[in-house]
Amino acid sequence: MKYYVTSLLTVLMICTTLTAQKSQFTLDDFYAENPALDATVDSIYNTLSEKQKVAQMIISCTGELGKPEATVKKLAKDTIIGGVVFLKGSKKTHTNTINELNTISENNKTLPLIFSMDAEPSLFASRIKGAKDVGKTIDIKSEAKSDSVVNIINKELKEIGVHHNFAPVLDISPGNEAIKSRSYGNNKDSVINLANRFIKCTQEGGIIATAKHFPGHGLVKGDTHKQSVYIDGPLQEVDNYTPIIADGVLSIMIAHITVVNNDIFGTDGLPSSCSRRIITDLLKEGMCFDGIVVSDALNIMKAVTILDNAPLLASKAGCDMILMPQDERKTMNSILEETKKDPEYHKQVIASVKKILRLKICAGII
After folding, report:
1. Domain range holding 263?
2. Among the listed ranges 103-117, 184-198, 224-238, which one has the minimum average pLDDT value?
3. Which of 90, 230, 235, 272 is the most buried (most CB within 10 A)?
4. CA 38/CA 43 separation, integer angstroms
5. What are the strands, taking DSSP E only, across the chain?
6. How far is CA 95 from the centre of its chain?
7. What pLDDT, in 10s, does the model give residues 215-226?
């Protein structure tokens, strides 16, 4: 253990020096062939214990709708989590909590956490109380308007210390119970173009963007917060993601939607977030997505809370980041135990952790 602590401290000192000199890596480097970046990822990875590696995959939550700050700080002190998503709260509260969590990482000599938020236009004012209301996503009709909205959101996120925005919504149709005005509308081409513009502007501004909710939550009935929701037959919204992936979106969030009556991509009664057919076979291998795959929230949505150990199922299906599990410690222990029993799954976890480390480096977090 002494070796891990000493080596990690050395790497952190190197990373701090690089950051002080304006880090040599940016978000543009994430997908690039870059031997120096590869070597940096490997050097950090090799200092981590198995527990510290798995922790990178687990994202907890806080804010008025999340877990108590004391709980999340304890998880950070115990190296159980790699990041935190911030739910409803004031700018001051969010900023103070992030500063305190950063201090915990510094004192522990552990890797910094990645901080995220559902800062899509329609939710922005509710996530940061007192922030400027940028309107609803459905009301954004031009690239100029989109850029204006993104610039406001990016500025607020950077001032707070948030690195990762779980936006935009790529779902078609504002008529769905869960999506409503969070969608860009009913016109497929317009939805794709405006979502892509949001992503590009977000990432050019140094914030990680996330396209959601794969494989498509717009053309279904129901809300996965309340019940299981189904895609019956073909995946009508999957093609929306092809140009988004080609243009470099860094992360994609997977919906808790069950696919039925589909011979190739049926999910056998599981939500997409726990389906290897959807995440690994379709998204990663079929659509060649090499970025970060994030599960949708796993703590309250009834489409997944009815399952036994949904966080492990989501990880085994191919999710790199396990978002808001009900029990972070149980999630870590389950993943660690499974890696000991399943060599192929262990390789998959290694790949997920290295991708997350790469993202943290390119985002200037480490």
Report:
1. 54-345
2. 224-238
3. 272
4. 9
5. 58-62, 83-86, 89-90, 114-117, 128-129, 164-165, 210-214, 229-232, 251-254, 257-260, 292-295, 322-323
6. 20
7. 998 777 666 566
Q: Is the pLDDT of residue 183 over 80?
A: yes
DSSP per position, 287-318:
S---SEEEEPP-SS-HHHHTSTTHHHHHHHHT
Supply the CATH number for residue 90's domain.
Answer: 3.20.20.300
Query: CB atoms < 10 A from the CB of 125, how many?
Result: 15
Nearest to 298 by CA among 54, 52, 61: 61
Question: Are 235 and 259 within 8 A, CB to CB?
Answer: yes
- Between CA 320 and CA 254 the distance in angstroms is 11
Q: How many domains does the chain have?
A: 1
Rounded Cα distance between 303 and 363, Å, is 32
Q: For 302-334, what is each residue's pLDDT tens digit?
A: 667 778 899 999 999 999 999 999 999 999 999
Report the alpha-carbon distance of residue 43 to residue 268 in Å, rounded: 40
Residue 3 CA to chain centroid, in angstroms? 31
CB 135 within 8 A of CB 121: yes
Residue 198 lies in a domain: yes
**Position with higher pLDDT, 223 vs 37:** 37
Residue 271 sits at φ, ψ, to 5 deg, of -70, 155
Tokens of 210: 């996330």
CB of 225 closer than 8 Å to CB of 302: yes
Residue matched to tokens 């009709």? 141
pLDDT band for position 173 (cuts 50, 70, 90): confident
pLDDT of amino acid 222: 63
pLDDT above 70 covers what percent of the chain?
A: 90
183 occurs within a structural domain: yes
